[in-house]
Amino acid sequence: MHKLSFLAVFILITSCDSAVLFREYKSFSKGWSSSDAVSFSIPQMPKTPSNIYVHIRNNNDYPYSNLFLIAELRDSVQIIFRDTLEYAMANPEGKWLGKGFLDVKESKLWWHEGWIPEHEGPFYVNLFQRVRNNGDVEGVRLLEGILNVGIALEPQIQP
Fold first, then answer.
1. Please, what is the Cα angle at 117 between 112 and 119, to 5 degrees?
2. Which of 48, 61, 111, 122 suits a disulfide with 52, CB 3.0-4.6 Å?
3. Protein fold of 20-155
């Protein structure tokens, strides 16, 4: 009976992400440098509407309540879109908005809705952190407290 319970839980957990078309994470050991792009290569995409999400895993060492990013999607010829994004990472009381246990939280942040690729791929995503302290012209060179950055593409659910 114990083996059946384990198998049922395993199937439930692995089937939750069956709708994800692509998901990948990059890790940082000492923080995210402003000079380092986080790059992903998406080998193939179906020509159906998809939503694109940025996933951020942070811990309590992250000193800010928000996060600024430059996000770029391109193919081998051209930039498809490039956006400057701001995400709230904590509420006004300082509580992290992401989900998770203890001091590691993961935020699933919406980037683009209903993107329909013109071809199957490959596609490339580059993410840059552009956090600044108030009043400073220069950005934060090393952003501490960010453990992982990921990208996910999910099919858009039609109502």
1. 160
2. 111
3. Jelly Rolls (2.60.120)
